[in-house]
Amino acid sequence: MKRLLRVLIVEDAPDDAQLIVIQLEQGGFDVHFQRVDSAQALTGALESAPWDVIICDYVMPGFSGLKALQILKERGSDVPFLMISGKVGEEAAAAAIRAGADDFVLKGNLARLVPAVQRSIAEAALRQQSRRHEQELKEKLEFIQVLIDTLPTPIFYNDPNGLYLGCNKAFEEQIGMNRDENINKSIYEILPPDLAALYSRGEESAENGVGPRSFEGTITCADGERRDMIFYSATFKNSGSSSGGVVGALLDISERKQAELKLRYLSSHDILTGIYNRAYFDEELERLSKGRKFPVSIVMVDVDRLKEVNDQQGHAAGDELLRHAAEVLKNAFRREDVVARVGGDEFAALLPNTDEATLREAMERLQAQLAQNNQEHAPLPLSLSIGAATAHDGEELMASWRLADQRMYRQKKGRKNSNAGSRQHQLVA
To answer: Which residue intervals define the domain GGDEF in the entry (predicted)?
Structure first.
């Protein structure tokens, strides 16, 4: 069965047009054709019907093959165009090919016509297929761009050479960059230094074949604010399984980090006084018992008359008294010492690398801070019952804690018995 071939012949000589048709029919085509010989007729024919191929004479009275080819190109048509001529030089044939003709056939060698038509139609089909694929790819990329633009997570991607390819709106807004102005620039030209370094770490891991990786870091955003981020990176592949580049995504974890810090703080600190709580004190006591910071001294402190202040002046005054006690203890001890509220009116301090002589110096600082506090807060004087002891190894630590507690309670009991609030003369055995 012959293949249908719709041919538009641009030719001023009807006999020559008929020879072309005969040659095509002998080549196995069922030829449907129309002959035109002017620009106006060519335009009308192009508008009236679809054509599989155009065969055009190079020279015609008042018209030419090059002019016909120009009309076709201006319409954006990709119909195969074959130029044909009775006698023409190589220079003219080359000019026709440069202008966009698919082939050039001499009328004296029409045996080349059928193969030339077949090849031109096949190449046109490949071009159409390529354009369809390009259009499909373009539509897919547009869909993907719309999709990632709807995501609140900043996303960007670059090629295997580290050149930037694109990003989503969230990334543009966070980094303060225009995606179109930075295409094919190095990632180090368009990103803040801290983010570029973070991206480089992820890129290296991804290219080493370890798959998606994540790193935490802090970057400066477009508004100048420092934000905590998790950076995710992964390679993507081309159709040939070669590396197409690296995709990066940023997850803002600043609020989570702040919440974690707050929870960590609340889990280890007393809300009222701001110093460490009993749970943290117990953990440090356990850690020190297994460590090498001996001797370790322990100081136990009880706030005198707290119940009396609560009953007579209210709990707000009692809370203020507790805050004053915490401030006195913090100012009296070193930064490496652990000061904690371990009960309602009880405080404790762990002093690593502190022997009896150093402990006595600490007690003197404590009394000095207490005296200064009472000068500054005369209407609400602070009285503390204090006991202390020193452990020289882990086995003595718990016993020393109990001993410090006993000494503190002996002082408190002595004050109650004397009703004078006098300081017990011996704090350290």
So the answer is: 294-424
Distance CA 208, CA 203 (A): 9
Cα-based angle 297, 300, 302 (whole degrees, multiple of 5): 165
Quote the CA–CA distance of 227 and 42 in Å, as a whole number: 66
Q: Look at the chain and count its residues.
A: 429
Please say whether the beta carbons of 116 and 82 come within 8 A: yes
**Among candidates 182, 26, 31, 17, which has minimal Cα distance to 114?**
26
Q: Which structure tokens are listed for 180?
A: 């179109």
For 276, which DSSP code? B
pTM of the model: 0.55
Long-range contacts of 47-53 (CB under 8 A, 24+ apart): 49/6, 50/6, 51/6, 51/7, 51/8, 51/79, 52/4, 52/5, 52/6, 52/7, 52/79, 52/80, 52/121, 53/5, 53/6, 53/7, 53/8, 53/79, 53/80, 53/81, 53/82, 53/117, 53/120, 53/121
Tens digit of each residue's pLDDT (9 = 90 or more) over 109-160: 899 999 999 999 999 999 999 989 889 988 988 898 899 999 999 998 888 7
> CB–CB of 398/290 below 8 Å?
no
Dist. CA 118–CA 53, nearest whole Å: 10
| pLDDT (0 to 100) of residue 113 | 94
Token output for 49: 């019907």
| pLDDT attached to residue 198 | 67
**Residue 298: phi, psi to the nearest 5?**
-125, 135
- Asked whether the beta carbons of 405 and 387 are under 8 A apart, the reply is yes
Q: How far is CA 64 from CA 68, 78, 100, in A?
A: 6, 19, 14
Residue 337 has which token pair? 């010492």
Burial class of residue 174 (count of CB atoms within 10 Å of its CB; 0-12, 13-18, 19+): buried
pLDDT digits (tens, 9 = 90+) for 196-219: 776 676 566 555 655 557 778 787
pLDDT digit string (tens) for 250-277? 889 999 989 998 999 999 999 999 999 9
Assigned token pair, 331 = 């100012």
Q: Report how far residue 321's alpha carbon sits from residue 304's, in angstroms, rounded to the nearest whole number.
A: 10
Q: Which two tokens stand for residue 221?
A: 């955003």
**From CA 118, how far away is CA 95, in angstroms rounded?**
22
